[in-house]
Write the structure tokens for this entry.
Amino acid sequence: MMEITGTGIGQGVAVGQVVRMAERLPEPVDRPSHLDPERETERAKASLSVVAAELARRGSQAGGAAKDVLEAQAMMAEDPSLLDEVVTRLQAGKTAERAVFEAFGSYRDLLAGMGGYMGERAADLDDISQRVIAHLLKLPAPGVPDPGHPFILVARDLAPADTATLDLDQVQGLVTIDGGPTSHTAILAREKSIVAIVGATDAASLADGDTIVVDAERGIVLADPSAEEIASAKSRIAERAVRSSAPIVPGALADGTAVPLLANLGSADGAAEALRLGAEGVGLFRTEFLFLDEDTAPSITDQQAQYTRLLTAFAGKKVVVRVLDAGADKPLSFLNDAHEENPALGLRGIRALRHSEAILREQLTALAAADAATDAELWVMAPMIATVEETRYFTGLARELGIRVAGVMVETPSAALVADRVLAACDFASIGTNDLTQYTMAADRLLGTVANLQNPWHPAVLRLIADVGAAGAEVGKPVGICGEAAADPLLAVVLVGLGATSLSMSPSALADVRASLARYSLSDANALARAALAAEGAAEARAAAVAVATEITSTRDTGS
């Protein structure tokens, strides 16, 4: 038996046979076309249109976060500037296949060099290019194989269009060689409750037909497992099914300590499903969907309508809204689309909003109006806070415009290190573990080559979270977690031990986290946190927490 390690998504387990995803199409040969440029242009436009329509169709079918991702891809496929790049190459006598390959490749390299949000879009360009070239060559589009029986998919990585439309009656689990816990694949897998492990480098050695166990809770893939390992995995699958069907109760530790479990949402469309899965409110409402791909900022009236819709759905519950998190890494023509060498460290978040304060004022005005018209408990927070002065600026402006509860995102080490002073200047803090890990580890969270460093289990990240938790306790201010770390069932317990007062995550992760919290008391959570903090690295921290958790549960089970 061989053990392959990676980053587990959720707490699930799967047993099945491997089916490998086909490799990418080969690079089109660079040769002169035998057709005239006009005919090649017709071919290229037709294929781009077909692919855009197919991506939009898949998005409508998938819904949720996948819909937003795929609709963005469809728009990229029909981007006029990209088409101009294609046509320029066609006029030089290239084939449509080669022109698409070169044009998309050029843009891909440009976006990859920008990092951040635009670096993520670079991978999307690769997928679109492959699909267009396949259509031009009359070949099957790159995608998930269909062997006619249930299987575990092993792939280098998955495009959003593939992850979003996986047939969950056939795909028992997913293992990717590349990627990290905040990649599109990981986020969509978590949303769809797919048993998945990402960044499992050694999974490249797996072959079609191999029997494997995918253990997301432990972050391992067992190749050629023993009969005992298979039986144990199947038993855990059955136990998890029982837990998932248990009545939904508020999040709490075993000793009754309340830990509200909230939902991360990208639009009001996900409200009903989040409530069905037991969300006690919203811990992160991303407002970017209102602004992205627009030429002008939405009006106060349009914004108010969307916010009112969300707050109405969560009447009587807490809803935390993040104001626009955009800037050079999410360029908006009406905010800031200037090129920056390192946009992840540039004019983004609160910095970009201060640069265009009118947009921030309009958003806060719309939020205050929606709050006045509904019965939800609205909290509003600013992204990418780095200083106490920025905190005072945002809370002052928010209160001036009618926001009753104003807080900040702690995503930078600087904000964490002076958390006592930051929290003294606002009403609450919410830790965005995705960016906090990125900046602490100096590792782009969208770059596969450093995915091993993008791990919130690292003691350096945990120590910063502990500092914020301690500051919150000292000044009597709540400290939530709204990054992907909160969706890790065991790490969720550690985060509470570090001082987190609430956890927000993808709605599909709520059941696993709720069940995990219910197994430990507050003193247990503190013990897990101490063990993780004392470790040297991320893997060691997780292993230490697992060891303590195993000791706690075994002692409880034996009654000793």
User: Anything to note?
Assistant: Residues 178 and 449 are 8 Å apart (CA to CA).
